[in-house]
Amino acid sequence: MSIESQIVQFLFTGIALGSIYAMVALGFNIIYNATGILNFAQGEFVMLGGLVMVWLSVTLGLPMPLAFAVTVAAVMAVGALFERLAIYPLKKPPVLILIIITLAGSIIFKGSAMLLWGKKTYSLPHFSSEQPIAVLGATILPQTFWIIGFLAAVVAALALFFNCTMLGKAMRACSFNPTAASLVGINVKRIVLLSFAVSAAIGAIAGIVFTPVVLMEYDRGTMLALKGFCAAVLGGLGNGAGAVVAGLLIGILESFGAGFISSAYKDAIALLVLLLVLVVRPGGLLSRGEASRLKDF
Amino acid sequence: MLRLQNIHTGYGDIAVLKNISLHVSRGEIVTLIGANGAGKTTLLNTICGLVRARSGSIVYNDRPVTDCSADQIVRLGISQVPEGRQIFAPLSVLDNLRLGAYTRAREWGKKKVQERIEQMYALFPRLQERAQQYAGTLSGGEQQMLAIARALMADPCLLVLDEPSMGLAPLVIAEIFKAVARLRDERKTTIFLVEQNARTALKYADRGYVIETGKIMLEGRSDDLLNNREVQRAYLGRQKQPIWE
Ligand SMILES: Nc1ncnc2c1ncn2[C@@H]1O[C@H](COP(=O)(O)OP(=O)(O)O)[C@@H](O)[C@H]1O
Ligand SMILES: [Mg+2]
């Protein structure tokens, strides 16, 4: 393969990978904006999305679109339940405690998935043909385009939700000033619940579109949460556009790093990029100068 | 209309309000004046369901509301204009107004919400000119108008305002207080006004309470309070010079 086609190959692999990181980062941001919490269980939603989808469509044989919808709904319910059981009952806990609770949650999700699905690795059929498409000498799987397409769809849906619906605007009002939001009669606790449900749904979508390419097993969530976290911080916590740009960037760098240097360093690249960028721009890539702060710390 | 009886509350170990009793009757403008840190904001937030009373009771229109949540209070017809305006800066002026009607949107439908927005524009024409602007780009006075309009969007019977004159120029303050007085005269909205700016507040109010370190020290008609030596000394800065022989 010529160097150009190699570059194209790595670029597409990177964008696909980055799309997943971007979706995880978007999930991080939605919960962060609503609550100030960094939800480290975010990666588990991706894992659950993949495994539930495999169970519904491969084991039970449901048609793909139906299995897709049921999976997203189920993981959404898990996210909402997690909020109601682990976050909601606490009265004004410090944010740090909440973050530790999400870490505990991720361990519980992982453990439950291991009990349900074992340590096996599961595969899922591609959405369309598995016949690679030739692009400038590189061979791209059609699933890659599905992944990119779903990222675009998620971004469009979120943009529509936050800019054109009253509920979306209420959610933005809440993240800007929860006190003022309460005073106009927005039920802030319900918005927090909604943020967990929406984040879980995005995680589930990421898991479903990703599994055909990389397979899925019970312990994938931690690394995905870490990468998604890097993307969220790199893009500036709470910044949606930043999350997408940073997610794609990390994916692409990781893919090139694995291709041209060594795949052994693949997982270190995200952290390395994060560290380097934060030294130069403490607020993240798309910050407007002010350093990003953790709410309430 | 609103009656607080023996309210105690605070934050953590700190007691802030000590045995507060007061009432506001329908159609009145009542003011609560007190220095910084006296507990005025805490009192309003206790009424509005943001701070829980530790003991005592709050009754609104013959209904106990001591344990109501903030959104229930808004639905019942009490809206607060918070201290420091607290408009939603990243949203447009129009969206701020729409969110003001958040609790009514379903019941009213789009048309009635739009009518209500038009009424707000009539009250504060400058908001109409700036409808599409981000709220954060408004001047201080305009932000205060927006904060008031946002609270009025929910069509409250009782409007509580927390230091609306804070940080504004005298002319703007007059404009805002006139609008508030007009609300009571034309729309029969009852007003509970918290102020440090005692002179202006007492000029527009019918009655007043004076709060000091969490206790109600004085209450009375505005004229009487304006003539009260203690009030003059502590809040009106009209210190009588001692006469030296
Ligand atoms: N969220 C809070 N947590 C702890 N203490 C508070 C809080 N808000 C206010 N206080 C304290 O309560 C007292 C009364 O404050 P506040 O009600 O804001 O007074 P005012 O509005 O009259 O200036 C002050 O001593 C203040 O430090
Ligand atoms: Mg105050």
Overview in brief:
The complex is a heterodimer of chains A (297) and B (245). With 297 residues, chain A is an all-alpha fold. Chain A has helices at residues 3-35, 42-59, 64-87, 95-117, 142-164, 166-176, 178-183, 188-214, 221-234, 240-261, 266-280, and strands spanning 133-135, 138-140.
Describe the model:
The complex is a heterodimer of chains A (297) and B (245). Chain A has helices at residues 3-35, 42-59, 64-87, 95-117, 142-164, 166-176, 178-183, 188-214, 221-234, 240-261, 266-280, and strands at 133-135, 138-140. Chain A has 297 residues and is an all-alpha fold. Chain A has one domain (3-122, 142-280): ABC transporter involved in vitamin B12 uptake, BtuC, CATH 1.10.3470. The radius of gyration of chain A is 19 Å and the shape is globular. Chain A starts with a helix and ends in a 17-residue tail after the last helix. In chain B, the strands form two sheets. A six-stranded mixed sheet of chain B has the order 6-7-8-3-9-10, with helices on both faces. Chain B is globular and about 45 Å long. Chain B starts with a strand and ends in a 10-residue tail after the last helix. Chains A and B meet through helix 6 and helix 7 of A and helix 2 and helix 3 of B.
